[in-house]
């Protein structure tokens, strides 16, 4: 088990390889198909910094945040997988979700020293390891808004790193 604390450093990411089991502690961001394209649009337009949200060294968990808890959604949805390169290019170091991603996405992760990790759908367990939650942008989207949550010992498996994928 590799213990990781957010924000993640470039060195921590360089040490990871496909199949590693990691435990993540610290703040991570939650977003999925409704919010990730909005973030990318603001990053590309250069307006993101006005929000005061620093994504560098960050982790994006592909999930909605509901009273029942959090659980991974499919990362290969067009709006989600389409955000990997832009988010990684702007400092996000880890994308958490589930499902196989395209070889082009694996390559984009490698080019940005970022990784993709999968989490089994274990909503109740993850809720017990979620210590705080705060809506930080687009509250009108409800559970699909951008949330920042504080977690302790979230476990995931590295699924894409250094140009390799667990699905190949």
By CATH, the architecture is named Alpha-Beta Barrel
Radius of gyration: 14 Å
Q: What fraction of the residues are assigned to beta strands by DSSP?
A: 25-35%
How many strand elements? 8
| Helix proportion | 10-25%
Terminal residue distance: 23 Å
Unreliable residue stretches:
none
- Order of helical and strand elements: EHEHEHHEHEHEEE
The secondary structure category is alpha/beta
CATH names the topology as: fumarase
Enumerate how many helices there are, as a single number: 6
Number of domains: 1
Give the overall shape, derived from the CA principal axes. Answer: globular
Which features characterize this protein?
single chain, 168 residues, alpha/beta, fumarase, 6 helices
Outline the structure in words:
The protein has 168 residues and is an alpha/beta fold. It has one domain: Alpha-Beta Barrel (fumarase). The protein has 6 helices and 8 strands, in the order βαβαβααβαβαβββ. It has helices spanning 10-14, 36-45, 78-81, 84-89, 103-111, 123-128; strands spanning 2-5, 21-31, 59-62, 94-97, 115-118, 130-137, 146-161, 164-165. A 5-stranded mixed barrel has the order 2-3-4-5-7. The longest helix is centred in the first third of the chain and has 10 residues, at 36-45. It is globular, with a radius of gyration of 14 Å. The model has no long low-confidence stretch (mean pLDDT 92).
């Amino acid at each position: 088990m590799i213990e990781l604390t957010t924000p993640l450093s470039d060195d921590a990411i360089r040490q990871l390889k496909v199949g590693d089991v990691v435990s993540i502690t610290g703040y991570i961001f939650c977003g999925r198909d409704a919010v990730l394209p909005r973030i990318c649009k603001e990053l590309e337009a250069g307006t993101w910094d006005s929000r005061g949200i620093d994504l560098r060294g960050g982790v994006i968990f592909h999930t909605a945040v509901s009273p029942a808890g959090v659980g991974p959604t499919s990362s290969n949805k067009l709006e989600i997988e389409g955000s990997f390169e832009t988010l990684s290019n702007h400092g996000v170091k880890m994308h958490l979700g589930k499902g196989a991603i395209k070889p082009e996405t694996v390559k984009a992760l490698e080019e940005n020293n970022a990784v993709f990790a999968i989490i089994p759908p274990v909503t109740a367990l993850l809720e017990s390891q979620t210590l705080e939650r705060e809506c930080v942008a687009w509250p009108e989207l409800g559970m699909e808004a951008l949330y920042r949550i504080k977690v302790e010992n979230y476990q995931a498996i590295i699924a894409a790193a250094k140009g390799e994928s667990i699905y190949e």
